Amino acid sequence: xxxxxxxSSGQIIISDFGAFVGKKSERLIxxxxxxxxxxxxxxxxxxxxxxxxGISISADVIQECMEHGIQIDFLTFSGxxxxxxxxxxxxxxxxxxxEQLLAYxxxxxxxxxxxxxxGKLRNQQGLLHYFARYRKSENCETFDVLSNMENQxxxxxxxxxxxxxxxxxxxxxxxxxxxxxxxxxxxxxxxxLLASNIEFETREHRGANxxxxxxxxxxxxxxxxxxxxxxxxxxxxxxxxxxHTDRPGKPSLCLDLVEEFRQRVVDRTVVSLVNRGxxxxxxxxxxxxxxxxxxxxxxxxxxxxxxxxxxxQHKLKTIIQLQARRIASYLRGxxxxxxxxGRW
Length: 344
Hints:
By secondary structure, the chain is α/β, with parallel strands linked by helices. It has 10 helices and 13 strands.
């Protein structure tokens, strides 16, 4: 099947070489050669992701997507986003962006940075707890080790609360120190969970050449695209973050907000995929088409899954959008900001 689609979720991911994406009447069509392999009405489409090379897309599709507010993301084979098409009409209010830039130099920026890290640490703690409890009866040693790791991360959340300054720059090194030490413990726990099911020594970002890191990086690429879209729709500037420093081409705010959702959306999915016995192979340094499709399908299921958020049930992808809007409201002085912490 050339396209990984989620008509029910409104997201279409196209990854096979030679696919053509065109428009026929009010429908998006995906063709392989002369054969139409999928058609989706534009009014059912929420996002379009092109992942891979040798894929063509018509100008008619681009225009139709922009008029319907449908964003188009482009990812490399390894899942790294390299382009995004959005309508110039989705810029939101100017006051939100002005406040976002000012907040960096104030307590507001520090508060947001600490909230993003707190969300990351608490969800790391939660994921270890989630997998550890299933091992309590069958492997007490692993349960005890993971429980101890949970407690260590909980101590770092307390340490995070004590960090204070006038702005992010005053305490950046302290924040990154807490985040880094918690990350080392967390990934040690993940290694323990994987046991001998797959090779995994340590977390690697760009250029990873082992199957587990490749799965994570591809999954994060899909998550980045989802978060980026939410940030743009909330009227925020994707490149002006708080934890992540400014650099040309670096969507720092997307990278900030992603921290709250990595564990719930991607890490849990990838660990489950491996531990269920799925065969994970690389072909010329890249994930095979088969495993990429399986990962895409599983991550889409996670994004469609409902979670409790502020006392109500929402899909995870909706919660991402609500958190982005919450950042914008906080920056405009309308409300407080709290990180999303899943119920593990």
